[in-house]
Amino acid sequence: MPRFLNMALRGEPITINGDGKQTRTFCYVDDNTETILRCLEKDLFVNDVLNIGSDTERSVLDLAKLIIKLTGSKSTLTHRPALPEGT
User: Fold this and answer.
1) What is the C-alpha separation between 19 and 60, in angstroms, rounded?
2) What DSSP element (H or E) covers 26?
3) Cβ neighbours, 10 Å, residue 68
4) May I ask the CATH architecture of the domain 2-80?
5) Residue 82: what pLDDT?
6) What is the pTM of this model?
């Protein structure tokens, strides 16, 4: 996300690896940190798995388009070949 924002703010083309249909979930870092600290302080989820994130998926392509819109950028979208699986 920071890379997309920086490119948009500079009016540079935003580069997407692959077709951009891959999805991600995002979580505000302060919310993530607050949850972790609360769990540590209250001894919650000891030796257990806790998913701290959103259940809302957004495609990389939609994210790039949204960033362009919200920043009022003149950036265009460019595509590179997809990265190898797992990178």
Assistant:
1) 9
2) none
3) 19
4) Alpha-Beta Complex (3.90)
5) 92
6) 0.75
